[in-house]
Design a protein that fits this description.
Layout (H helix, E strand, L loop, with lengths): L9 H14 L13 H5 L4 H7 L7 H7 L8 H15 L21 E10 L1 H8 L31 E7 L11 E4 L10 E4 L4 E4 L6 H19 L9 E5 L4 H12 L3 E6 L5 H11 L3 E4 H4 L2 H11 L7 E6 L3 H8 L2 E9 L12 H5 L4 E4 L2 H7 L2 H16 L8 E6 L6 H15 L7 E6 L2
Parallel strand pairs: 6-7, 6-9, 7-8, 9-10, 10-11, 12-13
Antiparallel strand pairs: 1-2, 1-4, 1-13, 2-3, 3-5
Helix pairs in contact: 7-8, 7-15
Bound molecules: NADP nicotinamide-adenine-dinucleotide phosphate.
Keywords: Fatty acid biosynthesis, Fatty acid metabolism, Lipid biosynthesis, Lipid metabolism, Mitochondrion, NADP, Oxidoreductase, Transit peptide
Family: Belongs to the zinc-containing alcohol dehydrogenase family. Quinone oxidoreductase subfamily.
Subcellular location: Mitochondrion
Length: about 450
Amino acid sequence: MASILPKPNKTRLAQLAELSAKIFNNVYNPKGERTGNKILRQKLIGPTVVDWYPKRIITLRKITDMFPRMELVNQEEKLRLEEIAKRKKRGKGAPKKVHTHELPPLTPTTLHIHFLASPINPSDINQIEGVYPLRPTFTKELGVLSDGEHKELAVGGNEGVAEVIAVGDQIKDLKVGDWVVIGRSGFGTWRTHAAATPNDVTRIDNKGIGLIQAATMTVNACTAFRLLKDFVTLKEGDFVIQNGANSGVGQSVIQIANAWNINTINIVRNRPDIDDLKARLKSLGATHVVTDEELGCYKTKELIKEWTSINNNVGVKLGLNCVGGKVSTEMAKYLCRSGYHITYGAMSRQPITIPASLLIFKNIKFLGYWMSKWNQVHSKEERIEMLNEVIGLIRQGKLGDIAHDEVIWGNSNENDESLKIKFLDVLDKANTGFHGKKQILKIQL
Ligand SMILES: NC(=O)c1ccc[n+]([C@@H]2O[C@H](COP(=O)([O-])OP(=O)(O)OC[C@H]3O[C@@H](n4cnc5c(N)ncnc54)[C@H](OP(=O)(O)O)[C@@H]3O)[C@@H](O)[C@H]2O)c1
C-alpha cells in the first residue's frame, strides 16, 4: 500500500537530525567531517599499558606507613634516627650561634687578619653534619662569650680570602694590606677577624684578581687543576667527561680544560631551564653538555662516539665524578680502554656501582682524589706553585668567577640574632639542589 504522507524534504530531515543531536547530546555533523570521535570512543588502553610494566616493589617504609597499628620496625629508618640522635649528642647539626669575641693580643709571631669573602662549600656542610673526616679546630682561645660562658668553640668554613691588618715583629714575609688565602682545612673562615700564624695562611699577589676568584680558588679551582693534571697526561684535543658539571669544581674544570685546548663532555641534571644552563656552560668553554637523562640514550651514545673519534682520538681518557650513583656508572662506560675514573665528590650520597666488565675488559682505573690530603702531603712551595698557575689563568681572563650569590655580611643594622637568621638561610640555600649558585659571604665592616 502506498504511503499517504508526503516524503520529507532534505532540509526538513537535516533540521530533525540537528534537533535530535541537541536532545540526545550528540555531535551534529551533517558533512561527516573527521572529528576524532571515533578514536575517543575506543576502549581505553591505559590499564594494558600499565600491566606491561613490571609491578613496583612495595617498600618496607610504605608498608609501615600504611599499617601503623602493626608497629612494624623499619630497621633502616631506626638506624637513621639513632645516628641523628648520636650526632645531636655530640653537638653536631646546624651552627647554633653567631658569636662576638675580642681578638687575642698580637704577639711577635702572630698576625691579625680580616676576612673579605668566604664561600659555603658542600664539605663545610658535611663537616657540620659530622660526616666529614676532618673536624674543625675546637678551642677556648676565642675567649669568653657575651653571656659570660667560656667553652670550647669551633668556627665553620674552610676556605676564604682575608686581608692582613696587623703583623707581629718577627714575621718578615707578610705585611699589612697583603691578601692571604687559608692554607689548611679546619681553620674556620666564617668570621670577620682571626688571629693566625704564618703557617695558617698563604700570601697571594692580588693584582688582576677579583674577590670571588680569590675566595674560591683554593678549593674549586685548585681541585679542578689537580684533577686535570695528576692522573692522565692530557694533550690538546683529548676528551674529559664529568658529571656535576655545573658545580664550582665542574665550572673550573670546563674553564681550565678550555684554556688547555682539552675537550669536555659535561653532564648535568635535567631541569626546566636546561637550555639556559647548557648555554651558560658553553659560554664558559664547555665542548658538549648533556643531561643525565640523555646520557643513557642510544642517540647520545652514538653522538659521543662520533665526537670522541674525530682526529683518530682514542676516546675519553678521564672521567671526573662529583656525584656518585647511577650517573657515575653510566659515565664510566664512555671511558676508553685503561681510562681513569676519578671520584672527588658524592653529591647524590649514592654508592658507585662498577660493572665487572669495565674492570676486566676495559681495565678502567677507579680512583679517588682529596684536595685536603694533597695539601697535607705537599710542601708550601708546591702549593704556591699551583696557586700561581691558577692565578696566571685568572689574570689571562681564562678562569672567571663561578656562578654565585654574594651575601653581604656586617651591615651596621645587623645584630647577632639577625645575622644568625641570615646565615641559616644562606646555609639552607647552599644545601639546596638545583640552586646553581655558590653562596659567598662578602664580609664588610
Ligand atoms: N675531593 C676534593 O678534594 C673536593 C674538592 C672540592 C669539592 N669536592 C666535592 O665536590 C662536590 C662539588 O663541590 P662544589 O664546591 O663544586 O659544589 P657546588 O658548587 O656547591 O655544586 C654542587 C653540585 O652538586 C650537584 N648536586 C647537588 N645535589 C645533588 C644530587 N642530589 N644529585 C646530583 N647532583 C647534585 C649540583 O647540581 P644541581 O644544580 O643539579 O643541583 C651542583 O652541580 C662536593 O661533593 C664536594 O664535597 C671535593
